[in-house]
Amino acid sequence: MHITQLNRECLLHLFSFLDKNSRKNLAKTCHKLLEVFQDPLLWSLLNFHSPVELKKDNFLLGPALKYLSICWYSERVKVCNIEDWMKNSFQKDFCNRHENTVSDFLLDVCNRCPNLLSLTLSGCGHVTDDCILQVLKNCPNLRSLKLENCVRITDHTLEAVTLHGASLRTLHVDFCRNITQAGLERVREKCPSVMLRAERSANMIPDSKPEKKLMLEKASRKLVQL
Hints:
The protein is of the alpha/beta class.
């Protein structure tokens, strides 16, 4: 029995077990499989493990998308998530090459995926407060927002949650060093129904100018000596 003899439901089930590249390659073989590839039911969940994957054409964005995850676990994260004034010319050049990759993708999601329920970002060092604000505004059904090691996220994102996160039930801002305790308390006060987690965030040294950074480090050493 040839694969194209299977009905649409069986083909969709088969495609659901394949990764994005395999789906795309299979879709190139005939029109029937291309139609299965383009079925919105196949694209309710998307997981990406590198910003490079966001630029490929092996997936579809649309109203059917409910769950989106962009998790970048790599040594390169240590380059993008360190403070700009600490980067050498090579590191700066590396970061500049994909400065807007994730943000541009998320703005595309805002325009095309209004039914998004869950967004997870990890190691996305270039994502800004404004980008998350647009997601909250354009995806009013968003229930879960999980941010980890996203260094440009600040209390402005927490403020956006209190203003536009009416459907939000879960908020994680782990290892986001520019989040403050005051911002977290505001969320707890304004959104008591939201399950908030902020592992290490408010206890980390925030981004600052070199002079201020050195002062903080010296103060820390003095406390240790005492």
